[in-house]
Amino acid sequence: MDKLKSLIMPHLSHHNLLIWGGLATVAVILLWVMLSQNSSQDTPSGDEEEEQPHILDRARSAMSDRAELPGMSLMEHLEELRKRVFHAAAYLAVGFVFAWVFREKLYGIVMAPYNKLGIGGLNFTHPTDPLNLYIMTALVGGAILASPFILYQVWLFISPGMYSTEKRFVIPFMTATIGLFFLGAWCGYRYVMPSALDVLINGFGKDFHPVVTLQEYNGFFLAVILGLGITFELPILIFFLSLFGIVDAKFLLRHIRYAILIIFVIAAIICPLPDPISMCLFASPMLALYLVGVGVAFFAHPTRRNRKKKDAAV
Fold first, then answer.
1. Most buried residue, 2, 135, 139, 147, by CB count within 10 Å?
2. Tens digit of pLDDT for each residue in 164-184?
3. DSSP for 79-141?
4. For 48, how many CA atoms within 13 A lie in the half-sphere containing its CB?
C-alpha cells in the first residue's frame, strides 16, 4: 500500500489539473447518461401521465388526505412547538454538562486522527480558541448523548399529523435514525479523517511546514463527521416521504439517474480530497443507502398498506 501511494502521490501533487479534469469528466459522463436515457424513453401516454402525478401533486394529496385528522389551531401548534423546543433544549443542556466533565477525554478522541501523524500539536491565534474548542466539543458530545431524547421530542411534534397505524414506527424511527447517524460518523472517524489528513498533510503538503490551528481542525473534523452522519440519514428522509405518499419505490427507481447525479454532486462537495476516486468512494455508500431507501419506500408506502388491509378483510 505504501509503495502504491508513493507511486500515485507524486502524480497527484504535480498534476492537479488532471484531477479536476477527471471530476469534470465524471460530471459530463453522468449528465450524458441522464440525457441519453431521457431522450431514449418513449413519450408516455395520457393514461400513464394520469397514473404518475407530479411530486407536488402527491404532496398536496398527502396533506389533503390528513385533513380529517384532529386539527390544532395556530396557537396550539406554536404552544406545542415551544414545549418540544424547551424539552429538547433541556436535554441538550444536561448532555452538555455531562460532556463538559469529560471534555479532555472527548478532546483526545477528536485529536486522535491528527496525533497519528506525529507532526506536533495544534496552534491557536486567539486567547479564547482553546476555550471555544472545549465548548464546541462538549456541545457536540452533549448533543450526541441527548440525541435519543431530542429525536423523541421531534417525533412527538410530528405525530399529531399521523394516523394511529403510523405512530407505531416510533421505535424503528429512533433506532434507525441514531444507528445510521453513528454509522456515518464512525465511517468518517475511522476511515475518512485519517486518510484525508494523511493525504492532505503528508502527501500534498510534504514540502511545506503545516501550521494547523484549533479552529481550522475543529471545523474540518465536524464537517467530515457531521456531514457523513447526516448523509447516512437518507433512508429516513425517504421513509417519511413514502409514509406520507409523496414518493414510492417506482418513482425512486424511475428517477434514479437524477439521484445518481445529485449524489455525486453532494459527494464532490463533502469529500475532503480532490481526486475523483475519493469522490466515488464517498458516493458509493450514498448510492447503497438510496437503494435501501427504495426498499423502505416499497414497504412504507400507504398504497401497499391499504392493499394488505383489503386482502386481510377478504
1. 147
2. 777 777 888 888 888 999 998
3. HHHHHHHHHHHHHHHHHHHHHHHTHHHHHHHHHHHHHTT-S---B-SSTTHHHHHHHHHHHHH
4. 6
Amino acid code (one letter) for 21: G
Model confidence over 218-244: pLDDT tens digits?
Answer: 888 888 888 888 888 888 888 888 877
Dihedral sign from CA coordinates of 174, 89, 165, 247: negative
The answer to whether the CB of 239 falls within 8 A of the CB of 295 is no
| Cell (9 digits) for 218 | 475543529
C-beta separation of 187 from 179 below 8 A = no
DSSP string, 23-38: HHHHHHHHHHHHHHHH
Q: For residue 124, is pLDDT > 80?
A: yes
Residue 279, by phi and psi: left (phi above 0), alpha (psi -120 to 50) or beta? alpha
